[in-house]
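Action item from last meeting closed. Structure (167 res):
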């Protein structure tokens, strides 16, 4: 099976962008996600985040489906590990830091997370996993900072607020 995964991965990477997009949109549609109704730039950027990561086109919806849902669907195990009462003040502090950013790009998000972790005297990972689960519902996915940049400041803050309310 690993050889087949590798072969699928190489096939996906070799697909012309339009072919990959067409097939990926079909997978998202089959999963009940209407990516075609989103802004084309948003959809293209979201799809680009998974091109070099997924091993099978059937994995597209599970990997980036969160971009196309209004509400985060939480993986129970991920939520139990990351959205804990102990992590609530850390996620709240990160939310405040992100709310104050004038530039909401991957580099600014990473630096802000590092600064927040340092100010709270915790390791970055104490903030990374709750932020990832709040935004995606999962422990795995595209680069946290890039996916938050694509989601945008308002959506990230909305998802953080929803996660904080659950904690």
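Sequence:
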């Amino acid at each position: 099976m690993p050889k087949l995964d590798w072969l699928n991965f190489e096939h996906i990477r070799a697909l012309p962008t339009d072919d990959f997009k067409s097939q990926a949109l079909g997978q998202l549609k089959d999963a009940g996600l209407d990516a075609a109704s989103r802004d084309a730039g948003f959809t293209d950027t979201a799809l680009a985040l998974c091109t070099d990561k997924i091993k099978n086109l059937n994995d597209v919806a599970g990997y980036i489906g969160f971009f196309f849902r209004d509400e985060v669907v939480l993986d129970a195990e991920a939520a139990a590990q990351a959205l804990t009462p102990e992590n609530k003040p850390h996620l709240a502090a990160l939310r405040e830091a992100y709310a104050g950013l004038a530039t909401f790009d991957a580099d600014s998000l990473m630096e802000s997370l590092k600064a927040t972790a340092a100010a709270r005297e915790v390791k970055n990972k104490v903030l990374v996993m709750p932020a990832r689960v709040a935004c995606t519902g999962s422990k795995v996915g595209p680069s946290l900072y890039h996916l938050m940049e694509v989601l945008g400041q308002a959506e990230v803050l909305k998802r953080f607020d929803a996660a904080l309310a659950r904690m």
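Note appended to the action item: The two ends are 39 Å apart (CA to CA).
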